[in-house]
Structure formats: C-alpha cells, structure tokens
Amino acid sequence: MKRRTFLRTSVLGTGAVAFSGTLWQNAALAAPAQLGPGPYGALGSADANGIQLPSGFTSRIVARSGQPVPGTSYTWHSAPDGGAVFADGTGWIYVSNSEVSGSGGASALRFNSSGTVTSAYRILSGTSRNCAGGATPWNTWLSCEEVSTGYVWECDPWGAPATRRDAMGRWNHEAAAADPVRKVIYLTEDAGDGGLYRFIPATWGNLSTGTLQVLTGGTGTSGSFSWANVPDPDGSPTPTRDQVSGMKVFNGGEGCHYAGDTVWITTKGDNRVWQFNLLNNTYELAYDDNLVNPGPAPLTGVDNITGSTFGDLYVAEDGGNMEICVISPDDKISVFLRVNGQSGSEIAGPAFTPAGNRLYFSSQRGTSGSGITYEITGPFRT
Is 130:98 a contact under the CB 8 Å cutoff? Predict the structure, then answer.
C-alpha cells in the first residue's frame, strides 16, 4: 500500500493507531509519483473558454479582472492568485488574492446554492503582492504578502475588517495551511533559500500571539525533521531564514496543503512536491519532474496546491503548459485540465466547494494581461 493511502486509511479507519517499526518503514518507501492514467480519462478538445477537460466536465468564467462581476457592480481585482472556498449556508464564498505591488489585497465572490453569483466585494485593501494563503478551521482567510518584509493578514470572507498578524512573522510569505490536530499553521517562503515554518498560537483560534518555528533537517530529499524556535519573527535586521542553524532550505516555497496528518508543500525552483509525515516526523518527495520515468514529466512550474475530499492532490502550474495536474493517493500523476492560448500566464487559486463538485481557479494574466477566474463543474470523485 502506498504511503499516502496507508496514512489516510489509518487515520480515517481507526484514529490513533500504534504501528510497528516494520509497517512504518514500508509506508515510508513510496517513490515519487509516476505517470498514470487520469481518474477521469483523457482530455477532450478545448471548449469555448479554451480549456481542455475530461468528458463530463464543463467550464465557465465567473469573473474578469477590470470588469464588473456579472450580476454585480463590483470590479474584479487584477492578478488573481491564491484562493479558498468557505461554506455560506446553502451556498459558498470563493476568496481570491490580488498579487499587485502596493495595492493588492483580496476579494470575494458569493454564490447561492445553484452556483449563481449573488454579490462580490473587497475583503482586504492597502497591502502588497498578496500571493497565496490558506483557510482556517474558524472560517477566516490568511492572505500572505509576497514581499521581503511581508505580513500575514487574517481576513473575514463575509467582509469584516481584516487584521494583521504580526506574530506570524515577516518574510516573503507564500501559502499557509492549518493543522487542527497539532493546532498549528504551516507557512511557506517564496525564496530560493527559504524555509518551512509553523506558527503555534498561544490560543487555538486566536493568531494574535504565539511561537514561530522553522523546520530543521538534512540536505537530502528524505529524512527526519524537527522544529526550532525563530528568535526574532520580525525578521529585522536578520531575515528569519538566517536565524536558525540547521534550517532545511527549500528552493522557492509555493503551495501548502494539510490533510490526514500530512502536510504537502510545492517548490517551484526545482519542480517538486514534498510531503511531511507529522506522525513520525519524516519527509520525502511526493513528486519530482526529474524522477518521472519514462518522461516527459507532466507537471512543471509547480505552484498552488489543494486537495479533494477523495484525497487527490491538485497542483497548478505557473508556466509549464498551463495545466492543473492530479496526484492520486496511489502516487500516480496525470493532467486534469489544460488552458490554451495563455502561455504568458499562470494558474492560481485552485479550491473546491465543500461538496467537492466544483473547482475554482484563476488564470492570473489571461489572454491579454487581465486575469480570468473560472469554475469547473463535473463528476469529481469525493
């Protein structure tokens, strides 16, 4: 049994389980994902929106940068990036960052139960290069500034004023993922010599105070890890990534996703997906484009990552050939969709509705430099 399947089965089946050393050893030997058939079959021809999808799936445009969101008077923001979906009664809300220098922030699209946009509005203003982020279990959005002294901003998807969370540190923030079991937030750093951090709130559900730590480990692609306190989360005058000896360095931290006692991160500088087993504090590669044999590898320019309720990982490309790829629980990788005619853009903000039957994402620069936000509907496995 592949490691990810093994972990998910153990967690879902029995909760806390005691495993023998042999079982853990076998579970840790899974190789990085290899090419396999997609769970939904081959891609079809491009649709009217230029998107190739498997049979049974459809796309629609829900917003365009610089234009009023259909059915509202709100002008959708430029450079849409990281995003998440929040339940809203029988409907849902999709929030999206704006990766614009000096005037980024984030906006929201509110949908009713039939998928119609009922309103759109700003949830964060006056910030810079809001790249990715992450949702919290208490239904807030952590919007991360991708600048050298960037902050994490906690936003209300319903539009209440956002709060800057200084205790979570200042650096080139990228993405965040909440771990309700260990009651921590994992944070990636978009730098060629960046780290993987975790923030331990003094009180779970309140991010105003707490302890910032960074992952320490070897220089290889697998091994054990531990956490060390960052002495000065403010990062001045010494950047946070230079404060802890033994910090494991990652080449351009991007997406971050937590599920089933595992956290995954992506690193764009080397086209990798890393997975961290939080039950036994070990790490290994879930994907490396250089280790796909035979090639060519389907996933390059790895960026944002999210997971489905089934356990599939969906990884978006910044560059590459504008695809979202799927890594299944049995460690097979395949292409789920491809956006045509937008080679100068990047895919960002993939996020599922709570029911798992709709996927949202954006093409940050679209066909002409203006972003486009899409919805994909179809028979996603849940």
Answer: yes
- Selection from 255, 269, 282 nearest residue 26 by Cα: 282
Q: Which DSSP letter does residue 4 get?
A: H
270 vs 222: CA distance, rounded Å: 15
Q: pTM, whole model, 2 decimals? A: 0.92
- All residues at 6 or more sequence positions from 161 whose CB lies less than 8 Å from its CB, including other chains: none
**Confidence class of residue 22 from pLDDT cuts 50, 70 and 90?**
very low
Strand order in the sheet with 272-277: 173-179, 184-189, 196-203, 206-217, 223-229, 282-288, 272-277, 262-267, 253-259
**Coil, strand or helix at 299:** coil
Amino acid sitting at position 347: I
Say whether pLDDT at 5 is over 80: no
Task: Please tell me the distance from the alpha carbon of residue 158 to that of residue 216, in angstroms, as a whole number.
Answer: 37
Q: DSSP secondary-structure letter at 30?
A: P
**Whole-number Å distance between alpha carbons of 142 and 342:** 28
Distance from C-alpha of 164 to C-alpha of 222, rounded to nearest angstrom: 35
The whole-angstrom separation of Cα 132 and Cα 84 is 10
Residue 80: which of 347, 380, 381, 323 has the closest Cα? 347
Among the listed residues 199, 164, 162, 166, the one whose alpha carbon sits nearest the alpha carbon of residue 184: 199
Q: Where are the alpha helices (DSSP H) in the chain?
A: 3-14, 21-27
